[in-house]
Amino acid sequence: MGVVARQGIKYSIISYLSFLLGTFSTIFIYPADTTFLGQLRFIQPSAEIIFPFVVFGLSYANIKFYQQFKAKNQNLDFLVFSIKFIVISFLIICLLYWLFASLFPSIGNSDSWKMKQYVLPVILILALSQLFSKYISNFKRVAITGIFENFFPKLGSLVAFICFVYLGISEINSLYIFIFFFFAALAGLIVYFLRLNKDKPSGSLSILSSKNFRKELFYFCIFSVLGSIGNQLALRIDNLMISELISYKQNGIYSILMSIVGFLSVPLAGVFAISGPIIVEKLENNQHAELNDFYQKISKFLFLFGTVLLSCIFAGCDYLFLLMKNGHELSEAKSIIYILGIATLFDISTGFNSQIITYSRYYRFNIYAMLLLAVLTISSNWIFIVYFNLGIEGVAMATAISLTIYNIIKLIFNYKIFKIQPFTRVYLYILITGISAVILAWSIPDTSNNLINLLLKPLVVIIIFLIINLWLKFFPFKEIFSTNLKSFLSGKK
Fold first, then answer.
1. Whole-Å CA distances, 460 to 264, 314, 440, 466
2. Which of 218, 238, 195 is nearest to 390 (CA)?
3. What's the distance, CA 389 to chain centroid?
4. CA–CA distance, 281 with 9 (Å, rounded to integer)
5. DSSP 8-class letter at 169
């Protein structure tokens, strides 16, 4: 687990620094105007739902077929082809969007259309950013990309919010400031790619002359884009539906609570990005036993971190709300943290089950499952919001139910096809430790200072895990940190 763990940890450190920035903003800045925050939280999810159409699966194709292109020295040529394709498809999407808005007046009256001048640029930027980020993962480097993918959007959101709420800059200009940070992130990714890349374009894509390869590439891209669309619909539709069916204010409150739960998922992106090429290698060589061992190690690593973090959140969230401006609004909806927290923990406990299916010859199944998730999420959100009138708590329940069903389906599929599954006995020990730590933290008498309570309760949880780790060795400190500091920081063995 050496290089994966080291890059994953570094990516997580960067992501957690981004989260600390987001946490500071959440506590001291964003509660001042949840309506404007709701607008900020509307732009990126809207773009993330549309940009898979623009990328058309080419970002994942640059990982899936990297070795085949590399063998013919055409990997860089395919990257250039991908960039051109993305730009052209973006222009087509813009034209279609305008045509649909002209034909259907309801689209022209929607929030998505009113915010188009902000959403459309982000679509293109996210498409190109994902392409370069995925390509860079072929170099087994994800830590620096985490700065551009995680830190820059959060910093942009904070700066835009301060400009509007505290400096009196107009809403329009503040939103454009937010968009600027996406441009800056893309520029950073391109510069980092140029620094890592040592290949030269061959000036040819002769590998595409093979009809069989073109067919394989096309079908992979088709199903990848369907899967990405399903994924974005399932995971991002809540912000759009809350904005359209409830209000920007409730979307702001939901986003703040979601950002707290999102702390659990920070290690995922780094570990998944660096694991992609390794999964492909083991699948292509039919090394299912080795893949299962790798799968269980990474899954245990993620579940441990997720359990520790969720336990800390459960132990300290009440005191966090007491320190926040308008924290009573968040406290009234804190059930969202419990609902989504448990669902998210189960999600990360299943490890990279989606990636295993995506990079195998059974990738079509992952698409069907993802589309099912999208249908379940949209329909259940509609039912809970419109018919049961449960507000953002209903959105959280809909998301949790859909996500759990989705993961169970993938677990069953992977076990039947590859005879692999992530769970071991250690999961039970970690879970028991987490529950015990939270109960013990809750049982400790409160002090008169809420800040001390906020620090003390999670600290108790961490100490309990460290003590139990000395006995059960959940986290392999010796294995991961067996290299010197220079090697660890460089990500080299």
1. 18, 12, 8, 10
2. 238
3. 28
4. 22
5. -
Name residue, tokens 């087509």. 92
Structure tokens, 37:
């925050």
The contacts of residue 434 (CB under 8 Å, 6+ apart) are: 307, 308, 310, 311, 461, 465
Within 167-256, strands assigned E span none
Q: What are phi and psi of 185, to 5 degrees?
A: -65, -45
Q: Quickly count: other Cβ atoms within 10 Å of residue 198's Cβ.
A: 7
Give residue 357's pLDDT.
84
Query: For residue 14, which amino acid is it?
Result: I
Amino acid at 254: Y
Q: What are phi and psi of 350, to 5 degrees?
A: -85, 0
Tell me how far CA of residue 258 lies from CA of 19, 22, 23, 262, in angstroms: 12, 11, 11, 6
Cβ atoms of 54 and 124 closer than 8 Å: yes
Query: What's the confidence (pLDDT) of residue 16?
Result: 61
Half-sphere exposure of 143 (CA within 13 A, CB side): 15
Structure tokens at 351: 């490890």
Cβ-based neighbour number of residue 190 at 10 Å: 14
pLDDT value of residue 236: 66
User: Can you give the residue ranges of every domain in the chain?
Assistant: 2-490
Decide if 7 contacts 141 (C-beta within 8 A). yes
134, 62 Cβ separation under 8 angstroms: yes
Consecutive 10-residue averages of pLDDT for the chain (493 residues): 52 63 73 81 82 85 81 83 92 87 71 80 91 81 73 88 90 92 93 85 80 84 74 68 78 81 72 72 84 86 90 91 79 89 91 81 78 82 86 89 89 90 90 94 91 93 90 67 42 45
User: Could you give the CA distance from residue 451 to residue 324 in angstroms, rounded to a whole number?
Assistant: 11
Cβ–Cβ < 8 Å for 217, 65: yes
Amino acid (one-letter) located at 255: S
* Helix-helix angle 34-55:75-103, to 10 degrees: 120
Q: What are the DSSP calls for 349-378, one per residue?
A: HT-SHHHHHHTSTTHHHHHHHHHHHHHHHH
